[in-house]
Amino acid sequence: MVRRIRPPPRDESADLTHPLVISIDAMGGDHGPSVVIPACAKALAELPDARLLLHGDEAQIRAELARHKELAARSEVRHTDRVIAMDEKPAQAMRRGKGTSMWNAVEAIREGQANAAISAGNTGALMAISKLILRMSADLERPALVASIPHANGMTTFLDVGANVDCDAARLVEFAIMGEAYHRAAHGVARPTVGLLNVGSEEMKGHEEVREAHRILREGKIDLAYKGFVEGDDITKGTVEVVVTDGFTGNVSLKAMEGAARFMYDELRAALTSGMVTSLGALLARPSLLRFRDKISPLPAAPLLGLNGLVLKCHGSADARDFAKALRAAADLAQSGFASEIERNMRRLPAALAPTAPASADGAA
Amino acid sequence: MVRRIRPPPRDESADLTHPLVISIDAMGGDHGPSVVIPACAKALAELPDARLLLHGDEAQIRAELARHKELAARSEVRHTDRVIAMDEKPAQAMRRGKGTSMWNAVEAIREGQANAAISAGNTGALMAISKLILRMSADLERPALVASIPHANGMTTFLDVGANVDCDAARLVEFAIMGEAYHRAAHGVARPTVGLLNVGSEEMKGHEEVREAHRILREGKIDLAYKGFVEGDDITKGTVEVVVTDGFTGNVSLKAMEGAARFMYDELRAALTSGMVTSLGALLARPSLLRFRDKISPLPAAPLLGLNGLVLKCHGSADARDFAKALRAAADLAQSGFASEIERNMRRLPAALAPTAPASADGAA
Fold first, then answer.
1. pLDDT per residue over B297-307, tens digit each?
2. Whose CA, among B84, B165, B199, B333, lies 20 to 30 Å from A324?
3. What are residue B154's DSSP bridge partners?
4. Does a cis peptide bond (omega within 30 degrees of 0) precede residue B19?
5. Are A197 and B252 in contact (CB under 8 A)?
6. Pairing of strands B311-314, B116-119
7. How far from chain centre, in Å, is Cα A290?
8. DSSP string, B249-271
């Protein structure tokens, strides 16, 4: 498969702050500043234009910054001693979240002080707070969450895995628009292919919403390379670059895949350490097994889609390498045409949703 | 975890034919009689009470039977030269299937000549033909299909993966009843635990149908060990023994898991054969890797649930060992209390579906 790779074009909407500013929840995740700050230092070395806003406990952040002079010079610390707990309920976070490091990180976007925000904190809370502060641009219950699933030759963009449980056809088409723009910005693919997740049964393919979304996408009024229905195993086959489904199916099947991968990994490790000869074999194969593990790891960060602003969720157990990747992903997205491409295609949605006129009508009213 | 293992009790409904008779579509699957007949010979050696009806091309079947005298003595060959193609559409199969080996295998159940039927042929066709001949006992679009997914200490029974796309709460409860009885019969677990698949988001757990099914199962009018909601990764964790979901989510997430497992297996093989030292390691680890592969293989056969009769689907690429396992599974199910346990619990369904009366009402009309 030949893919045209192009550098992400600069987005005019990214010029509200110049140079690029990324707003960081320094307290989020399992480790807080001790992981986030070294990660920022690592990432900033490759982002000569970027500056950071670091939200959180100033003493803890300064202690880490003392070891990273270059980062300290390009960052602004914004103190707060309030933090959203990893187990806080989204409703609680919305009521009591004001002034926390997560809240302040997101609010900096709304105030035009930053181009993107990143948190490794509580996903439900980040979704709820982001929706409250930035408001939705798309007509969704809550932001859509993208997962990046590895396949033999790259990554599949899979959404919604963020639990927009009830999705009509229009919502599925919105996911297609957002996922396609995300995949282009994140992976530099000019025209990502898109598929709609469905069941394999020949008869009565899927429910009403899926069939209606299929009809809309196939008609071509939305500007993307739609390839039709795909099945669950196409996600890891790389049949299409973007796989679209509702948040219920997406969340369940993402976790099912993670569970299957975890089970296989555990069984493999148990098998390879079960005897002396086998263990020697495992030792010899170790470098390959480590490369294997890297290959099957998904991306550590995902954007929340459908918001008026760019917020990325980094997974809670992220180490410095993961968080640095998330920062580079945020910079790539902020500097790409991502947001304006979504807006452009979203404007086509009302016409695409309208029932089709008879094929040979003359257009007389 | 301590499990009470008990031998499957004999079911009174299994006495319509004595000894046990299993009806075989000898032409189904990728290989036909050359695999099916040796598999039958292998399985029958462990089933002293069983007899077989072999449906298909008599010449081909007799050629194989010539090598298996014991099987030949305990089988009856029922000739037909008509076969359902692996790519035949279910609607076509229903119209034109009469007199094919698959059709005749299922019809023997309705005619009281066999206790169970097995086919490794086209799944959609088998579901359609079975529904047409046997009729549904449960109120479903089509039979529910069970998958058996390995976890560290056993197998998870997962249904519906057979694409009953639109499922209300009553359908989900029916799946719970059928899956629980199946798990007991197939795995000798006295009281299998049951969970309902849902998303992990704290707020607004799942859609209306899932929450309503949860309410019904929690009330306890249905006789089973319901443990509440589970998530996608619980399927391979073995958190509960039976995981229930609608046919859309079940089909997609089963295929997603299969895809993830296939991807990991391929990547692992590529990693382990990428260099000389690594390949030596892989060679030393080979016995463990083979045990690993066995461990992660699901069961080769699954019953179609909700029919007035026992039909098992064996996967199309089954080898003789797989098909023999399917035969033993059919015998276990036919001789268990499976069918009557489902019927008993299904009779509780109307009362369980009725809205709950106020807690301290006196029952005055």
1. 667 788 999 99
2. B199
3. B151
4. yes
5. yes
6. parallel
7. 25
8. HHHHHHHHHHHHHHHHHHHHHHH
Instruction: Give contacts of A122 with chain B, Cβ < 8 Å.
Output: none
The pLDDT tens digits for B155-204 are 999 999 987 888 899 999 999 999 999 999 989 899 999 999 998 755 45
Q: Which residues pair with A268 in a beta bridge?
A: none
Q: A56: left (phi > 0), else alpha (psi -120 to 50), else beta?
A: left
What's the whole-number average pLDDT of chain A? Answer: 85
With cut-offs at 50, 70 and 90, classify the pLDDT of residue B295. Answer: low
Helix (H, G, I), strand (E, B) or coil at B208: helix
Q: Quote the CA–CA distance of A79 and A59 in Å, as a whole number.
A: 9
8 Å CB contact of A259 and B124: no
Min distance B320 CA to chain A CA atoms (Å): 26
Q: Do B235 and A261 touch (CB under 8 A)?
A: no
HSE-CB for A85 with a 13 A CA cutoff: 6
Burial of B326 (0-12, 13-18, 19+ CB in 10 A): buried
**CA A309 from centre of chain:** 13
* B125-155 pLDDT tens trace: 999 999 999 999 877 778 999 999 988 888 9
The mean pLDDT value for B29-57 works out to 92
* Residue reference for tokens 């086209």: B122
End-to-end CA gap in chain A: 46
Q: What distance in Å separates the CA atoms of residue A153 and residue A2, rounded to the nearest whole number?
A: 11
> Measured between CB atoms, which of A163, A197, A271 is closest to B252?
A197
Q: Six-digit token pair at B194? A: 């049951």
Q: Please tell me which residue of chain A has the smallest CA distance to B281.
A: A281
Contacts of B135 (CB under 8 A, 6+ apart): B307, B308
Query: Per residue in A64-85, pLDDT tens?
Result: 999 999 999 999 999 999 999 9
Q: Who contacts A54 (Cβ-Cβ below 8 Å, separation ≥6)?
A: A24, A26, A37, A40, A61, A65, A75, A76, A77, A78
**Tokens 């005055």 — which residue?**
B364
Q: Strand ranges (DSSP E) for chain B?
A: 21-25, 51-56, 75-79, 116-119, 144-145, 147-151, 154-159, 193-197, 225-230, 242-244, 301-305, 311-314
- Report the residue from A141, A163, A288 with minimal CB separation from B271: A288
A283 closest CA partner among B278, B274, B283, B268: B278
Q: Does the beta-carbon distance from A255 to B200 stay under 8 Å?
A: yes
- How many beta-carbon pairs under 8 angstroms link A with B? 236
**ipTM for the whole complex:** 0.84
Cα(A234)–Cα(A244) distance, rounded to whole angstroms?
12
Measured between CA atoms, the residue of chain A closest to residue B294 is A267
Residue A297 has pLDDT above 90, yes or no: no
Terminal alpha carbon distance of chain B = 47
- Residue in B closest to A167 by C-alpha: B207
CB A126 within 8 Å of CB A311: yes
- What pLDDT is recorded for position A293? 65
**CA distances for B220 relative to B103, B217, B337, angstroms:** 40, 6, 21
**Could you read off the pLDDT of A298-351 as tens digits, one per residue?**
677 889 999 999 999 998 888 888 888 899 999 999 988 888 889 889 889 889
> Given the structure tokens 């009729």, which residue do they identify?
B135
Q: Report the alpha-carbon distance of residue B362 to residue B18 in Å, rounded.
A: 51
Contact A247, B246 (CB under 8 A): no
Q: How far apart are CA A178 and CA A193, in angstroms?
A: 13
Domains in chain B, CATH or no CATH each: 12-137+307-336 (3.40.718.10), 139-299 (3.40.718.10)
CA angle, A330 as apex, A329 and A336 as ends, to 5°?
A: 90
Please, are residues A279 and A272 in contact by the beta-carbon 8 Å criterion? yes
CA–CA min distance A183, chain B (Å): 20
